């Protein structure tokens, strides 16, 4: 289970409290506050705090003292304009703080998004739990033959079972040795900051991650993409659902222009103009490399 009974009781206590405020709140996000949304086998994502809503974005764009125009459609239109023209500052007016429990190897991918504030559980001071990410059988895949960063066909039968056994056995053996090294039963015990180096990358860690909406949407555009690694993509998908309830107008525009849209180079745009005029355009006369042409064809379907 992602949460212990003590953690569940703490969350229930947090959700039972309410506070009066004069600041804007988002009803959809209020429903998510403190609740842990399970991800993978032991992980979760939960909202600790947030600031702003859709109206904060339009207010910042207009630099007004009110809540924007009285017309929701006008505010939605402005948000779509800002998204369409790649404005960033108005979306930075909203922030969110998340509590995330995730495998270390996912955290190392995640931390490459350097536009957030992070405070991670310290294995120098505390002892890590015996919790490891073990993939579900349908997530065990061979190396892709066409993509050095991707996966190929799912492993099956005896090979899949052998890999799962190795992952479980190695994880447990490493943790057994970790406990032996830090134990002070009849010995001094190795410092925790040294003993942790023996733990595998699939052990779980936790952090608080605070980020503004502009940079969060950039994270989602990359990590909720179908080509992203599965283990980080499921976290991005869980966060995306929270964002959709927090700033629905912004998320709708984001889905349309970022997740569902495409960016063309000047060369690609010129190829489309030539095609519309009835010209036959091939990779050889397009001015694109083979890789660019392959991606261009993919965009055109």
Automatic annotation (TrEMBL):
<feature type="binding site">
    <location>
        <begin position="112"/>
        <end position="114"/>
    </location>
    <ligand>
        <name>FAD</name>
    </ligand>
</feature>
<feature type="binding site">
    <location>
        <position position="223"/>
    </location>
    <ligand>
        <name>dUMP</name>
    </ligand>
</feature>
<feature type="binding site">
    <location>
        <begin position="212"/>
        <end position="214"/>
    </location>
    <ligand>
        <name>FAD</name>
    </ligand>
</feature>
<comment type="subunit">
    <text>Homotetramer.</text>
</comment>
<feature type="binding site" description="in other chain">
    <location>
        <position position="196"/>
    </location>
    <ligand>
        <name>dUMP</name>
    </ligand>
</feature>
<feature type="binding site">
    <location>
        <position position="218"/>
    </location>
    <ligand>
        <name>FAD</name>
    </ligand>
</feature>
<dbReference type="GO" id="GO:0070402">
    <property type="term" value="F:NADPH binding"/>
</dbReference>
<feature type="binding site">
    <location>
        <position position="120"/>
    </location>
    <ligand>
        <name>FAD</name>
    </ligand>
</feature>
<keyword id="KW-0274">FAD</keyword>
<comment type="similarity">
    <text>Belongs to the thymidylate synthase ThyX family.</text>
</comment>
<keyword id="KW-0489">Methyltransferase</keyword>
<protein>
    <recommendedName>
        <fullName>Flavin-dependent thymidylate synthase</fullName>
        <ecNumber>2.1.1.148</ecNumber>
    </recommendedName>
</protein>
<keyword id="KW-0808">Transferase</keyword>
<feature type="region of interest" description="Disordered">
    <location>
        <begin position="1"/>
        <end position="22"/>
    </location>
</feature>
<dbReference type="GO" id="GO:0032259">
    <property type="term" value="P:methylation"/>
</dbReference>
<dbReference type="InterPro" id="IPR036098">
    <property type="entry name" value="Thymidylate_synthase_ThyX_sf"/>
</dbReference>
<feature type="binding site">
    <location>
        <begin position="109"/>
        <end position="112"/>
    </location>
    <ligand>
        <name>dUMP</name>
    </ligand>
</feature>
<keyword id="KW-0521">NADP</keyword>
<keyword id="KW-0285">Flavoprotein</keyword>
<dbReference type="GO" id="GO:0004799">
    <property type="term" value="F:thymidylate synthase activity"/>
</dbReference>
<keyword id="KW-0545">Nucleotide biosynthesis</keyword>
<comment type="function">
    <text>Catalyzes the reductive methylation of 2'-deoxyuridine-5'-monophosphate (dUMP) to 2'-deoxythymidine-5'-monophosphate (dTMP) while utilizing 5,10-methylenetetrahydrofolate (mTHF) as the methyl donor, and NADPH and FADH(2) as the reductant.</text>
</comment>
<comment type="pathway">
    <text>Pyrimidine metabolism; dTTP biosynthesis.</text>
</comment>
<dbReference type="Pfam" id="PF02511">
    <property type="entry name" value="Thy1"/>
</dbReference>
<dbReference type="GO" id="GO:0050797">
    <property type="term" value="F:thymidylate synthase (FAD) activity"/>
</dbReference>
<dbReference type="GO" id="GO:0006231">
    <property type="term" value="P:dTMP biosynthetic process"/>
</dbReference>
<dbReference type="GO" id="GO:0006235">
    <property type="term" value="P:dTTP biosynthetic process"/>
</dbReference>
<feature type="binding site">
    <location>
        <position position="89"/>
    </location>
    <ligand>
        <name>FAD</name>
    </ligand>
</feature>
<feature type="binding site" description="in other chain">
    <location>
        <begin position="120"/>
        <end position="124"/>
    </location>
    <ligand>
        <name>dUMP</name>
    </ligand>
</feature>
<dbReference type="GO" id="GO:0050660">
    <property type="term" value="F:flavin adenine dinucleotide binding"/>
</dbReference>
<feature type="active site" description="Involved in ionization of N3 of dUMP, leading to its activation">
    <location>
        <position position="223"/>
    </location>
</feature>
<dbReference type="InterPro" id="IPR003669">
    <property type="entry name" value="Thymidylate_synthase_ThyX"/>
</dbReference>
């Amino acid at each position: 289970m992602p949460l212990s009974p003590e953690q569940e009781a703490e969350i229930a206590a947090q959700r039972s409290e309410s506070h009066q405020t004069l600041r804007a709140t988002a009803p959809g996000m209020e429903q998510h506050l403190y609740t842990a949304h399970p991800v993978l086998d032991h992980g979760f994502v939960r909202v600790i705090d947030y600031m702003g809503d859709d109206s904060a974005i339009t207010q910042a764009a207009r630099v007004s003292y009110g809540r924007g125009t009285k017309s929701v459609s006008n505010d939605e239109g402005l948000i779509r304009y800002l998204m369409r023209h790649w404005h960033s500052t108005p979306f930075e007016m909203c922030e969110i703080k998340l509590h995330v429990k995730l495998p270390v190897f996912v955290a190392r991918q995640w931390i490459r998004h350097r536009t957030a504030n992070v405070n991670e559980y310290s294995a120098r001071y505390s002892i890590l739990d015996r919790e490891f990410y073990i993939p579900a059988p349908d997530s065990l895949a061979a190396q892709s033959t066409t993509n050095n960063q991707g996966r190929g066909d799912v492993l099956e039968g005896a090979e899949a079972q052998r890999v799962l056994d190795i992952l479980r056995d190695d994880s447990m053996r490493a943790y057994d040795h970790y406990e032996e090294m830090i134990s002070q039963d009849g010995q001094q015990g190795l410092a925790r900051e040294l003993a942790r180096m023996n733990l595998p990358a699939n052990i779980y860690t936790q952090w608080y991650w605070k980020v503004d909406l502009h940079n969060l949407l950039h994270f989602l555009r990359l990590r909720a993409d179908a080509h992203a690694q599965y283990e980080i993509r499921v976290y991005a998908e869980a966060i995306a659902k929270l964002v959709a309830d927090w700033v629905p107008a912004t998320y709708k525009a984001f889905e349309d222009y970022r997740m569902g849209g495409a960016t063309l180079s000047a060369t690609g745009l010129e190829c489309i103009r030539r095609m519309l005029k009835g010209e036959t355009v091939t990779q050889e006369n397009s001015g694109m490399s083979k890789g660019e042409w392959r991606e261009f064809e993919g965009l055109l379907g």
